[in-house]
Amino acid sequence: MPCQRGFSYIGLLLMIAIAGVGLAAVGMRWHQQLRAEKEKQLLFVGHQYRAAIASYQAANPNGPPVYPASLEDLLRDKRYPNIKRHLRKLYDDPITGSAEWGLIRQQGRIIGIYSLSRDKPVKQGGFAPDDRGFKGASSYRKWVFGQELLEPETPQIGFSKP
């Protein structure tokens, strides 16, 4: 009888080891799915900001088109007698979970935004035509949502919700 207990113990250890490896694989897969979901959310939010910046720029009632000076201008465009909204709300960055975004400015005006995350995106291809520049990006910072720069400027970081 003592020999059988030893085999049972080894069998139990083997089953625990196999279960541990299986759970680790499931955990890694779940983490990848979570990152892919955050990327989808970043693409949605980025498209909302891109459309809002373009809408603001095109809707100048007093002369030539201008870009917003702050992200709050997308919520409440005070250039009109009645406040016009180009964006329903200011979104947090889904990747970092922060309200802070990197801002691309031209002549002091916001022409684009990007995530401050330095992580490498899971998605490396198969983007929509407006996002074709995201292919093969080394970090989420390369995913810029907005207008093309007319002349190079240093990106400025900074926006926090009040």
Sum up the structure in keywords:
162 residues, alpha+beta, four-stranded antiparallel β-sheet
List the helices and strands and how they pair.
Elements: H1 2-58, H2 72-75, E1 102-106, E2 109-114, E3 145-146, E4 156-157
Antiparallel strand pairs: 1-2, 1-4, 2-3
Describe this structure in words.
Residues 150-155 have low confidence and may be disordered. Helices cover 38% and strands 9% of the residues. The chain has two helices and four strands; from the N terminus they run ααββββ. The protein is an alpha+beta fold. It is elongated and about 85 Å long. A four-stranded antiparallel β-sheet has the order 3-2-1-4, with helices on one face.
Distance between the termini: 72 Å
User: What is the element string, with H for helices and E for strands?
Assistant: HHEEEE
Parts with pLDDT < 50 across at least 5 consecutive residues:
150-155
* Continuous helix count: 2
**Percentage beta strand:** 5-15%
**Shape verdict:** elongated
Based on DSSP secondary structure assignment, what is the total number of beta strands? 4
Helix content: 25-40%
Q: What radius of gyration results from the CA coordinates?
A: 24 Å
> What is the residue-mean pLDDT, rounded to a whole number?
85
Strand order of the main beta sheet, please?
A: 3-2-1-4
Structural class: alpha+beta
Largest sheet: 4 strands, antiparallel
